[in-house]
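Please predict the structure of the following assembly.
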Amino acid sequence: MEEKFCLNLQDALEIESKEVEPGDNFRDYDEWDSLGQLSLIAMLDDEYGVEIESDDFKKLVTVQDLINEVKKRS
Amino acid sequence: MAYLNFNNIGFRGLAAAVPSRVIDNYKYTAHFPAEDVKDVVDKVSVYERRFTDKNTTSSDLCFHAAEKLLADLEIERESIDALIFVTQTPDYKMPASAVILQDRLQLPKSTLAFDINMGCAGFIHGLSVAFSYLQQPTINRVLLLDGETRSKVYHPKDRKTAFIFGDAGVAALLDKNDAYGPSWFSINSDGSRSHLIRIDSGGYRNPSSPDTLKEKVVDEHGNIRTDENGYMNGPDVFNFLIREVPKDIKNIFEFSGQDRENIDFWVFHQANTYMNEYLAKKLKLDASKIPTSIEKFGNTSSVSIPLTMVSKLGDKLKETKKLLLSGFGVGMSWASAILQMHNCYIPEIIEVPVE
């Protein structure tokens, strides 16, 4: 699940320069911006049927946090 | 469950009016550095918008659109039975702007007239009400006006909304004709998400006061607005709509028994380019069947669907064409319609002079 999630996130944000890893702070990616956030939202809905509201989303820092949240909700 | 079905009711004509003042979004740099602005504009793909001036309201824009439509089609004012005005930027809190428009347009006093306070999905609400009246043997012509001056709602120092919204007004003349055939509507609401797009103050829940008019920094990004400006929680709105809108479209096809392949054009609310590209992908639609006007006029709320029909489809709607309309946003409220256009008269967009 971790590995697949990292690949999905890499695709969603169109990151080419590096491989996404669970320890990354996703807001630090050059590709992270308001549209990147929409791409992540769309990916979470498509792949996992998960919706994370902004109040909860604000608390998430790393890719691992995202993975844990998705596991909790799916 | 709000599904509706009508027969032989449709568009005789549709006209749009925009203010003459063009906002070049790359040059909308009074409050943000030019390079930041370029970044935002390239992301949202809204290159131009229209803004009214202090003295021009949404009802003024609709007035000009309606005058043009009635004159070109040589419609007798006495023959208009109802005037419905969709807006969330009315002239006054009371009376309803539709009643003022009855007089300005010199319609008879027997005209039924009222406003509908709905946003992004509002044109479809308006159509559903107009079509319902037109089922009456005594109602034969309805003028549906839809206008917004969103430039007056959002604060120029709130970058979440400062570069997206524009002003416009339309007038649709709706009547009866066997050539229109059947039409179907689906209309939905979720008030538990009313806080996602809202103007917090200035109504009767939180009345206007010196405090509600004060500019405040509202988030960690330094965005500034007052409590009487609109705000939008974009990510949560998007999250909600990408689930509900495709579902609603699936539902209306089931309800109507229509075949997706027979839809000539899919006209979506012009919320943002990303949302519409997402819908196209999710619904596996051919891009040539999805007209867009957001690059040129921005998000004009309820006006965006008919403004897209006028600016991008125009004369194509003189022929018989089947459309799917889908509006979604503030409320939350979302709605779809499948209807057929036949010999719909659409003049060039009118430019209303403003300062």
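The interface with chain A takes residues 43, 233-236, 238-240, 242-243, 274, 278 of chain B (CB under 8 Å). The CA atoms of residues 199 and 230 of chain B lie 4 Å apart.
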